[in-house]
Amino acid sequence: MKNLLTLVCLSLLFTSCKGESQNNVETTTASAETYAEKITAADLKKNLYIYASDEFEGRGTGEPGQKKAVEFLKDFYVANDIPSPIAEGNYHQKVPASFLPNGTKDSENVLAYIKGSEKPDEILVISAHLDHIGVSANGDINNGADDDGSGTVAILEIAKAFKAAELDGKGPKRSILFLHVTAEEIGLQGSKYYTDVEPIFPLENTVTDLNIDMIGRVDDNHEGGDNYLYLIGSDKLSQELHDVSEAVNNKYVNLDLDYTYNDENDPNRFYYRSDHYNFAKNNIPVIFYFNGTHDDYHKPSDTPDKINYEFLETRTRLIFYTAWELANRENRVKLD
């Protein structure tokens, strides 16, 4: 009888613990979905029509339009009470002309962050480049709505969603750095400056970089099809990161994740051509989110009216969900 009672008690305890675990998972899922819904096509469109307007003059590195862009980003973070990790009110990390190619003026990265509630010294980076190619010789403005206005406004909406969670007492366990880098178009210089010269947070404490570069359009390979994203680099340094990414997608949004450009033999070599690479070369796991190129790539015709905002909303939510998981899971993803 004593043994029977022991077995019954153990069974009840196991059932209780299992139920509690399931409730925690459901609560986490519900929380993530609640804040993901704050990322909307309407807000993405509103910000992109400003950021990719003629007023910003194509955001050429070091040029007046790029200076307007960094002020726009700073003003957004100030308005949403998302602080800078550099110093109070100072969101600009100067990238000096001496670091940049000859003839390029001083430029700036823009940094904002949310401090982790339990593991503040571990950093998840979400990055996108703030610059574009500026004004053509004939005076045409290259607005860069997709490249990389789409990634830039995606970060703003992700930051706003995490801030809402923090205000409700559900902020991320790890710290999240929202990193807008300059001079990508002239050789990934802004991200190189951050990783090689002045990392605000130690690279050894940086758990992952989620890099967003062009996620607002549809390329020829997917015209007329379902929503998709190219993912590049997710399994190159951490198989666990790739597995987490796949699980998050299956759980929340079920996009068509296309790994065509993740092939080591891809002649485009996209893995080496955006800012995540400066993190990857420092053994930091990365995911590069990308919609592929299109006829308006690096042309004045890359304008905000050609963005698919419903697709952009879902893609941005996928990145938010992935960041949510990486920021809140018990252990950082393992480096292979």
UniProtKB/TrEMBL annotation:
GO terms for biological process: proteolysis. GO terms for molecular function: metalloexopeptidase activity. Residues 109-321 form the Peptidase M28 domain. It comes from the Bacteria. This is M28 family peptidase. It comes from Pseudotamlana haliotis. The lineage of its organism: Bacteria, Pseudomonadati, Bacteroidota, Flavobacteriia, Flavobacteriales.
